[in-house]
Every structure is written in C-alpha cells, then in structure tokens.
Amino acid sequence: MIHVVAVITAKPGQRARLLEAFAENRAAVLAEAGCIEYGATVDAQGIPASKASFGPDTFVVIEKWETLAHLQAHAVAPHMKAHSEKTKELTAGKLIHVLEPV
C-alpha cells in the first residue's frame, strides 16, 4: 500500500475555493482503480495553534493507494490534469509526500 500526504497551500483567502474544486473532483478520484482513500483535512478546531498548525490557507489531502502504479496512473489521469489547470491560479504551493508502511 502507498500512503500520500499532500500539503496544499492556497493563495491568501483562496482555500475555500480550492476545497470546492477538490470536492468536485473527489468522486472521479475515488472511482480510480486502486484508490482506497482520498480526503481533505484541515487543522482541528478547538486545538490551540502551534508551530505544527497548517493555518487558514492550507489543507492536507490524505490518500491511500493499493500500489505505486495506481498512484502513478492517478497523477496523469485526465481529470487530474483538468483539476490542476482549473486550480493553478488559486494555489501557492504543494508538498507531496509519498510513503509506504514499514
């Protein structure tokens, strides 16, 4: 299994729009072969901010894929290319961590 932690930072004030676009694309991703989990998360409410907090412009996508090949196919899927094009003007940065269990 492959785990992905994708830290997506929006341009200031644009996180809600990015999350809307994520939600619109999510069903297509979940329908992909090998996709086990694909969901967006934000800092938990009620927890004091710390150096580890992501802040109001960032969200984290938690993904699980059956194999690396499935993740690689996801990266080049037409709906992902369209999503990237649609959101590029809203996005300030992305950090994609690809991990495997030990």
Helix content: 25-40%
How far apart the termini lie comes to: 10 Å
* Fraction in beta strands: 25-35%
The class by helix and strand makeup works out as alpha+beta
Backbone CA Rg: 14 Å
Shape: globular
Instruction: Specify the number of helices.
Output: 3
Query: In CATH terms, what is the fold-level topology?
Result: Alpha-Beta Plaits
The main pleated sheet reads as: 4 strands, antiparallel
SSE ordering: EHEEHHE
Keywords: Monooxygenase, Oxidoreductase
Protein name: Antibiotic biosynthesis monooxygenase
GO cellular component, one term: cytosol
InterPro entries: ABM_dom (IPR007138), AI-2_Isomerase_LsrG (IPR050744), Dimeric_a/b-barrel (IPR011008)
Topology summary:
Blueprint: E1 2-10, H1 15-30, E2 35-41, E3 58-65, H2 68-75, H3 78-87, E4 91-99
Antiparallel strand pairs: 1-3, 1-4, 2-3
Question: What can you tell me about this protein's structure?
Answer:
It is a single chain. It contains three helices and four strands; from the N terminus they run E-H-E-E-H-H-E. With 102 residues, the protein is of the alpha+beta class. The chain has a single domain, classed as Alpha-Beta Plaits. It has a four-stranded antiparallel β-sheet. The longest helix has 16 residues, at 15-30. The protein is globular and about 35 Å long.
Question: What are the salient characteristics of this protein?
Answer:
alpha+beta; 4 strands; Alpha-Beta Plaits; 32% strand; globular; four-stranded antiparallel β-sheet; 102 residues
Give a nutshell description of this structure.
Keywords: Monooxygenase, Oxidoreductase. The chain is α+β, with helices and mostly antiparallel strands and 102 residues long.
